Amino acid sequence: MAKAKTGQGKMPKASEPKTKKPKEKIPKETLLKIYRDMVRLRFFDDKLNQLVASGIRITQHSTHGQEATQIAATNALEPSDYLMPYHRGWGWAIGKGMQPRHLLAELMGKATGCCKGKGGVHIADWNLRIMGRPGVQAAHIPIAAGIGLSIKFRKAPDVVLCFFGDGASNEGNIHEGMNLASVWKAPVVFVCENNLYALFTPNVETTSVRDIADRAQGYGMAGVIIDGTDAMAAYQAASEAIRRARSGQGPTLIEAKTYRIHGHTAMDGFHLGGYRAKEEVEEWEKKDPILKLRKRLIAMEYSTAARLDQIDQKAKEEIEEAEKFAKESPYPTKEEIFKDVYVEDVQ
Ligand SMILES: Cc1ncc(C[n+]2csc(CCOP(=O)(O)OP(=O)(O)O)c2C)c(N)n1
Ligand SMILES: [Mg+2]
Predict the structure, then answer these.
(1) What span, in angstroms and rounded, lies between the C-alpha atoms of 108 and 106?
(2) pLDDT tens, 21-49?
(3) Cβ burial, residue 141 (10 Å; 0-12/13-18/19+)
(4) Contact 254/213 with Cβ under 8 angstroms?
(5) Domains of the chain, start order
(6) Nearest ligand, CA of residue 69?
(7) What is the distance between the alpha carbons of residues 347 and 337, in angstroms, rounded to a whole number?
(8) What residues are neighbours of ligand 2 (ion), with CB under 5 Å?
(9) Which tens digits make up the pLDDT trace of 165-223?
(10) For residue 87, which ligand has an atom nearest its CA?
(11) Are 196 and 166 in contact (CB under 8 A)?
């Protein structure tokens, strides 16, 4: 009789991960870089709203209000680390190093975009290890777990940073992906940006727990809650989780409590859309992540209002230039249509 399979010994043996130097406190230069990226992102986001209002068709899921977590967490990565993004906003791209001009050109379908105009909103950039903005909610969570497993097989020192929303947190793929990531002790950092709504539905109506981070316990991983409007808290939590992942201690779930100031997309009304109270939006507007960091940089004497104004001005000019670049760029030619759409081999 065949011996019963027990499943024992089937797990891949954990390799000894190479650790990278831990980031203990946040250096001044890092915080100034985070501030700069957050401001670039805000101007970029505003620019997209303007372009959509002028009739250019771009699906704009605004990042306004959510800049801190996306920018700070991606700034905690090394260039060789992987990013598994989601549909909300553009902070993960800018924070991971994408130039706004290449991002905007792509969104406008131009040949100078990061995917040569063939990705559109499905932003990807292999050089930056941005693994592709998904369209199906939560379908990217098992992919992030798989990338994590591949890192372990290759004994690489990298981690995967994976974003998703509170609505996506209720999808089946989350359960499968997070469970496997934990079983494999895969080097993945999951960041759930809980902005209180999925489309027009408040998450109190759809979600069994008030703190999505509580679910981490069910997957045997660390769960952390942060103020998602606080860039310093986001950087520290992400750095700590990245350090744990890199040293072989497995995944973490970070829940960032945040809010989207605009509508689900630029098409459903910038502010209220009929499903939330004006007072609620106003309360969250007071917690503006950029103003929060700006005040702290000045209070810590890391910068002055005048110097930060200069950063703001430069960022504004960069985004104006990006618009000009994208508008003047050509569309891909007909001959290009089947080029770069299928990869034979990836090293
Ligand atoms: C499986 C699946 N169901 C539905 C949709 C349509 N959809 C796109 S975004 C979205 C809301 C997602 O909400 P959340 O995860 O909270 O992210 P947020 O938009 O608030 O950042 C939905 C339902 C989808 N893309 N995929
Ligand atoms: Mg949401």
Answers:
(1) 5
(2) 444 689 999 999 999 999 999 999 999 99
(3) buried
(4) yes
(5) 28-326 (3.40.50.970)
(6) 1
(7) 24
(8) 165-167, 195, 198
(9) 999 999 999 999 999 999 999 999 999 999 999 999 999 999 999 999 999 999 999 99
(10) 1
(11) yes
